[in-house]
Structure formats: structure tokens, C-alpha cells
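Duplicate of earlier report; Probable branched-chain-amino-acid aminotransferase input re-posted below.
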Amino acid sequence: RTVYVNGEYLPETEAKVSIFDRGFLMADGVYEVTSVLDGKLIDFDGHAVRLQRSLDELEMQSPISKEDLLEVHRELVRLNGVEEGMIYLQITRGAPDDRDFVFPDPETTAPTIVLFTQNKPGLADNPAAKKGMKVISIEDIRWGRRDIKTVQLLYPSMGKMMAKKAGADDAWMIQDGFVTEGTSNNAYIVKGNKIITRAKSNDILHGITRAAVLRFAEEAQMEVEERNFTIDEAREADEAFITSASTFVMPVVEIDGAKLGDGVPGRVAPRLREIYLDESRKAAI
Ligand code: PLP
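Output:
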């Protein structure tokens, strides 16, 4: 695989970053994951805008312009022959001379930027979307700025492991009795023709797929309600689903071991998945 590190395209075995990099020592960095379908980028603009917001919130400077970032994404897709898959992008505050809690001077310490591709043939045709996924619920003990897409992913990773040990696919996190989101996705329930999802705040990541799906839902005359919901309300919902750049729209058919309805995907989530895939493919660049 050819990867991109600080301005260079290199074989992955030759790519290097410093042991003093603050991403490595302090999780002082942000990331984005953009999906690729038909060799084209899905929602690139949304990811680029959110990246800039994450950087701004952490007072970090971008080492690259949006135009150049698009070129790097396209070049990596080309070099690695990606038809379906993902591009991972990470920017950290760079590697000062020594470990220090104080941010380094941006004049002397440049950010570190890394991009690599993940080839995932069959991403759009994922059989898991036909079957639906199982989630468990766990307490949300992450920090209070989940709207910033930082590389601090230890608790979400532990949550995923808890799900795996319980025979499930993912964990929905609960704060003050209400579902925040999945370990790496936004969470939704469906009641009748109404799609319910938590409103945007510092408590959740503002999903790029979420924004697109809610827009498509409204265009298709489905009702959208942005509000908190409890895990009990979710267990009694007609349907549930998640969204993210790497899973698009994925039905949830079981919560904490209890089947939702008949335990198979319903009407709304599969339809939204289809609309999302169709529309995103058309708009891909
Ligand atoms: N919520 C969390 C915690 C995530 O990590 C992600 C994606 O990685 C999402 C939601 C979904 O965001 P997007 O649709 O932009 O991939």
C-alpha cells in the first residue's frame, strides 16, 4: 500500500513519524474517514469542513489546503486502485523536541499529517445490511467534547470489545438515561414513519452521514425528530439503525438481547440505505 505522510507518497513500510509525536503520546490529534465507492469520494466536502472545525476547536493549524487535501485523497485512491473502501486521514499537533503538556509553538512544530487507504470490496453490498446488527448498551464515560473528532478512541474501542464479548456487533452509549451514539456511528430509532435521533450538541459527533441521511429522509417526506431517546424507548421502537461513513445506514435488529419487532430489518432503514447509496454515488467526486 502507498500511504501519504507529511507531503510524501511512500510504501507503508517506509512511512515514519517521531516517537515524540503528540498524537502518539497524548492523543492530541484529529481524524476523518471518507468512504470510496466506484473509485470516487463520498461526502468529501462535509468531511473537509468538519476536519477544519475539529482543528479550529483544538487551536491546531492545518498543514494542507482543502484543494490539496482533495488531490491527496484522489491520488491515494488512484495509486492503490481503490474501488470500494475508505480513506483514513489524521492530523496531530506534531512532534516537539520533548514531551510537555503545554502545546508546542506552531512556528517551530509543524503538524503531522498521515493518510492511508483501506480497500473494502463489497462495502456497499455488505450482507450485514440484510441481516441487521445487534447492539448492547453501556454507560457513556467519554470526555465532554465528542463533537470534536479526536483520535482518543480508547473507550469506544473498549465498548466495541464489550459488544464482541457479549456476542453483539456494537455498543450504544447511555448518558443520564439517554442514548448518545454508537462507538463509531450515530444512533436512530423509528416509530411509525418518524425517525428519531439525538440533536447535535457537544455530546455526540456531528456525523456527515447523519446530515445527509436526515436531508434525504426529509426530501422523501419522512418525519424527522431530533431529540433524546432512552434505551427503553429504543427497545420498544419499530426499527432502529446507525449511520457512519464506513457503514452508511445499517439496521439494528437487537438491543441488549431483545429483538426489535420480528428481529429482521424493517422498512425505513433499508430504504434510507438505498436512497443514501444512490444519492451519494451520484454526488461522489
Ligand atoms: N459518532 C462517532 C462517535 C463516530 O466515531 C462516527 C464516525 O466515525 C460517527 C458518529 C459517524 O460520523 P460520520 O457519519 O461522519 O462517519
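Residues 33, 181, 184-186, 205, 207-210, 243-245 surround pyridoxal-5'-phosphate (CB under 6 Å).

Merging into the original ticket.
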